[in-house]
Amino acid sequence: MESEWRIFLWTTLSVGLTLSVFSFLYKDNPFYRFTESLYVGIATGYMTIILWYTGLLPTLIDRIWIGQPWWQFWGGKWWYIFPGILGLMMWFRFSKKKAWLSRYPIAFYIGISMGAAIPLEMKNRVNEQLFNTFISPDFSAMAGGFWNGISEIIIIIGVLTGLFYFFFSVPHKGVFGTVAKVGIYTLMIGFGASFGYTVMGRISLFIQRVQTIRDWASTGIEGGGGMSAIVWIFVLFIVLLVLIEMIRHMRKKPTEAV
Amino acid sequence: MKREIPLLIVFVAGCFMAIQFFVPHASSEYVYEFVMDWTIIIGVFAMALGIWSFVKVSLNKINRRQENWQYSIVAMAGLFGMIVFGSSIMKLFGATQVGLESYMFKHFFDYVIIPLHATTFSLLAFYIASAAFRAFKAHSLMATVLLVSALIIMLRFNPFLGPVGEYVGDGAAWILNYPNMAAKRAIGIGIGLGMVATALKVILGIERGYMGSD
Amino acid sequence: MNIFEKLSKLDRRWVFLILAVVVIIALLVDFKTPLRINKEVQSVYDFMEALEPGDYIQMSIDYDPGTIAEMHPMTYAILEQAFKKDVKVIITALSINGPGMAEKAMLDIMDSVRILYGKELVYGEDVAFLGYKPYPGIVILSMGQNYRISFPQDYYGTPVDDLPIMKGIINYDDVKGVILITGTSGVDFWISYANGRYDVELAVGLTGVMAADYYQYLRSGQIFGLMGGMLGAAEYELLVKKPGPAMEAMKVQVWAHIVIIVFIIIGNIGYFISRRKGGVS
Q: B153 and A195 in contact by Cβ < 8 A?
């Protein structure tokens, strides 16, 4: 079990970094830049280790060598050397003269991805969706009655007009104009729904950060007098700093739209 | 050699994967599994390429003392620090667990990566509030439709609407399941057709952007 | 210049400050918001409830820390529900910054199930964490053939065949369904490749930003359930009767949304006044 003090120090570091990132809301500053660079570096380091232990070791190295000395690869699945060589060829991307060699593995990967996409994307994004659109509207009481039937007609009209708006290159005038207009209004309702959901999504992220800071502060209080004193001094210091700086700035410069 | 063989590889691999979907014979399944195994291994090397690219750019920045080069030192220190924490070198410092189980590696993920990544994303909450204030205007009927749709979705869990709240909740569910769904379906079908067309162009060698220039 | 016009020219940092203050205060005050359960969330719960002890599910925890706020509550609620019912769970993480969080969620829930329900879960028998592999599309296809293609070893380097939980488990046919919690576009691969090719029973937990885009797949039956953002997570917490961070966050959401709606109204009033004066074309 990790000691309470150790956890407290780690969480204090985490809260300090959180506040450094929030300082960007006021203006760009060295604290923010430091944490931003630190994050990029550490996250890339994390990726490197994850790729080594969960990627390269199990899928390639452990298959070829299965615990033998490195020069004895005949006991394992030696043929995995070939995808290894293909993978290494990617790295010729950095060579000016031999960059063309990197095209082989890229071509292999692209061919596989594109080939897999053709039948599956056609089936799932296009066919399934079209089949599910053009079903006769269900007005039965069990399905929801008249209102359900109307709503299903709205789906057919919405999909057709939406597709018309995107695909038909005839000038959007007269009847075509009306159809395209219905399409764009349907799309607007969809974008509105996405915006409404997005607001919730974005706010959620901030709420979680505030919850974390609150939990850190309350851990400090439960952890003993020393910790809670540090927590509150820390919070007060940050709040004071922010307030003084904001008031000073607002007085000095007239407000302007950013 | 430089262009023809990659084009041939794309064509053969693409045709195999597309046809294999319709011919699930044991022999084709065998090749299919084999091919996917290889692709994942190549993928690992491709990801590593991205990491090396980042290192190269940062080291160049430091060497040439470009603007804000000091921050690249911080990034490099973070990167190599994390690699050391996750490697077996930590045994030299008395660590009992190394690799993915290393104390420092796990704690740097939990207490540095998670808060920094989550907080950076949480800044978007403020920008969306600002955007709502400045840009979300009912300047046309179309914009008004968008605005009303968004407001209904945003109000659906508001407890202060009283008896109206029930209708707003129903309205939001209806919007999501019918007009919104129709709109997203139209966009989705468009994306699907676009993807199939692009894939065909790539396999047939019409689109060659992935090869870069000579 | 009247008050609305002045407000519409306000420095955006005041907007930031107001939002921050409202969120902080709302989190501190005791306030409950009633939630209604939507049928797309209910169907995920019903699926989980219908599972028998010993059944298998796969959970793909495909998000990174950027979306932890919305995704983690879903993961915790579903994992706990599965462990409580003795359902065996195979966990994968197809986002490169995700494995650490997936592991933490698994270990946390194993701990809390031991403390709350006295169940001693054993890694490798009740749950397995296969870890991360790059390129979700190919990995998802390969798991449809055999988990061992992309995951010859688990996250800790143990050969998958040495894990008792994986005995006789070959591919998606051997699991009752996949619960995908994701904040990435990998969801498209899951729908098109896993469901499209292998008919996997698939339910998704998505971020608020993505949720509205996936109702089409719900209607076509390509996914059987959808949890959208914090609201979806809160509804699930309510269903499993385990109030957690998502339910708490919803009370804050109410106030934050009111603030944003007020911002929109003020912005629009300012806009219409300016337009009447001919300030805006």
A: yes
A55 and A13 within one domain: yes
| 3-state SS assignment for residue C237 | helix
Least confident of A3-7, B60-64, C20-24: A3-7
Nearest residue of chain B to residue C149 (CA atoms)? B37
Residues 6+ apart with CB under 8 A from C91: C58, C59, C60, C61, C102, C106, C127, C128, C129, C130
Are residues C260 and B154, on separate chains, in Cβ contact within 8 Å?
Answer: yes
Binding-face residues of A in 214-253 toward B, CB within 8 A: none
**A107 and A60, same structural domain?**
no
* Chain B interface mutation, best of A34, A49, A82, highest count of B Cβ atoms under 10 Å: A49
What does the pLDDT average to over A221-241? 63
Size of interface A-C (CB pairs under 8 A): 157
Range of the domain at A110: 88-133
Total number of domains in chain A: 3
Q: Which residues in chain A are closer than 8 Å to C138, comparing Cβ atoms?
A: 112-113, 116
Both A104 and A150 in a single domain?
A: no
| Domain coordinates in residue numbering, chain C | 3-30+252-276, 39-243
* Residue type (1 letter), B160: F
Whether C15 and B129 lie within 8 Å, measured CB to CB:
yes
pTM given for the model = 0.91
Over its length of 214 residues, how does chain B's per-residue pLDDT go in tens digits? 788 999 999 999 999 999 999 987 888 888 999 899 999 999 999 988 889 999 999 999 999 999 889 999 999 999 999 999 998 888 888 778 888 999 999 999 999 999 999 999 999 999 999 998 888 888 899 999 999 999 999 999 999 988 898 999 999 999 999 999 999 999 999 999 999 999 999 999 998 888 877 6
Question: What is d(CA C90, CA C129) in angstroms, rounded to the nearest whole number?
Answer: 6
Distance CA B71, CA B76 (A): 9
Taking each helix axis as running N to C, give the angle between helix A174-223 and helix A146-167, from 0 to 180 degrees, rounded to the nearest 10. 110
As given in the structure block, the two tokens for residue B159 are 């407890």
| DSSP bridge pairs for C59 | C91, C179
Nearest to B182 among A52, A99, A186 (CB): A186
The model's pLDDT over C110-158, given as tens digits with 9 standing for 90+, comes to: 999 999 999 999 999 999 999 999 989 999 999 999 999 999 999 999 9
Q: Which of 1.10.150, 3.30.70, 3.40.50, 3.90.700 is the CATH number of C39-243?
A: 3.40.50
Q: Minimal Cα–Cα distance from C53 to chain B, Å?
A: 31
Q: Cβ separation of C33 and B122 shorter than 8 Å?
A: no
The answer as to whether A4 is a domain residue is yes
B77 vs B138: CA distance, rounded Å: 50
In C, residues 46-65, which contact B (CB 8 Å cutoff)?
Answer: 64-65
Closest to C16 (Cβ–Cβ): which among A25, A117, A208?
A25
Given an 8 Å threshold on Cβ–Cβ distance, is C256 in contact with A207? yes
Chain B residues in contact with C216 (beta carbon < 8 A)? 181, 184-185, 188
Q: Which two tokens stand for residue B30?
A: 């065998």
Distance from the C192 Cα atom to the nearest Cα atom in chain A, whole angstroms = 5
Q: Would you kindly state where each structural domain of chain B is located, as residue ranges?
A: 1-66, 73-134
Specify whether A99 is located in the same domain as A161. Answer: no
A127/A157 same-domain check: no
Q: Cβ B14–A60 below 8 Å, yes or no?
A: no
Is B158 in CB contact (< 8 Å) with chain A?
no
The CB density around residue A252, as the number of other CB atoms within 10 Å, is 7
> Same domain for A9 and A68?
yes
Which one of C11, C131, C211 has the shortest CB-CB distance to A197? C211
Collect all residues of chain C within an 8 Å Cβ-Cβ radius of residue A250: 11
E strands, chain C, in order: 56-62, 88-92, 127-131, 178-182, 202-206, 225-228
Q: Tell me the per-residue pLDDT of B145-190, one tens digit each, with 9 for 90 and over.
A: 999 999 999 999 999 988 898 999 999 999 999 999 999 999 999 9
Cα-only R_g, chain A = 30
